[in-house]
Amino acid sequence: MGAGPFELVCEVQPPTRPDLMAVRHQIGVLSSVATAFLIPDNHLGRATISSVAVAHEVDQMGGRSIAALNARDRNLLGLRRDLMTAAAYGVDEFLLVFGDPPQSGARTGELTVRSMLAEVRRFAAGSATGRPLSLRAGVTTRLAPLAGWKRDADFLFVQASFDLAALLRWRETVDFPGRVLAGVLVPPSPSRARKWAAEIPEISVPDRWMAALEAEPRAGVGLACDLARAVFDSGAFDGVHLIAGVRYRETALRLDADGWARRAGASRGTTAG
Predict the structure, then answer these.
(1) Is 105 exposed, middle or buried (0-12, 13-18, 19+ CB in 10 A)?
(2) How far apart are CA 36 and CA 58, in angstroms?
(3) N or C: fewer beta carbons within 10 Å in the chain?
(4) How open is the CA angle 22-156-169, to the nearest 5 degrees?
(5) pTM metric for this prediction
(6) pLDDT tens digit string along 108-139?
(7) What's 130's domain CATH number?
(8) Contact 87/52 with Cβ under 8 angstroms?
(9) How many domains does the chain have?
(10) C-alpha–C-alpha distance, residues 243 and 241, integer Å
(11) How far apart are CA 53 and CA 20, in angstroms?
(12) Helix 113-124 vs helix 76-89: crossing angle, to nearest 10
């Protein structure tokens, strides 16, 4: 596993209108527990404010940002533009993703996550700026054998799962030199959980989670926070990528009550009191 303290990377919902107030509120609410914020890029195939611009906003608010960049919407020139913009803003961490299916239009087809990673490395070496830059780039992975080229990434974000045993079985099979973060989703309602299970083949919501959500729609907050704690206690991962969605307020309160302000930054595998 990678060296360093345990991370809690909280994903924010990016603005779909030219207004940053909502995302600023998310950052402010979650800042007491998050070690970093992931900024999605045209999340779910909808146009949003640039992830690089929102990442800069996070940095201005005193947080640490990771800007997602997707292959779906870019050609090579567009990627180089965004890397240049990020360098001007001081944004230096990226999560490179394939991109959700677009709601309209089509993929550019020019870039892949692999080619984006190679371009980030060339850019960091000074191909456009004339001087080397310290950039970190991560990629995502399913609970499947890791493609060899992904070992060149600085960190891995593992697909969201509700099954700690499956995460641990997968982790035992993966040799990766960087940091590995497990994805944890907060289901906001039983209907949304059913929708995820129907539309995303990799996600299977346990029956006990569904029963709890049917009894109390807000139960997903506690279930997800308990899973994040179990990931921490397992010592198998370097952090959690938490997607709280519309439940970010309740999630922040629960995490704060659970002591994540102390736990974030602690050594892996130890239990904070």
Answers:
(1) exposed
(2) 9
(3) C
(4) 115
(5) 0.91
(6) 668 999 999 999 999 999 877 778 899 999 99
(7) 3.20.20.220
(8) no
(9) 1
(10) 7
(11) 10
(12) 50
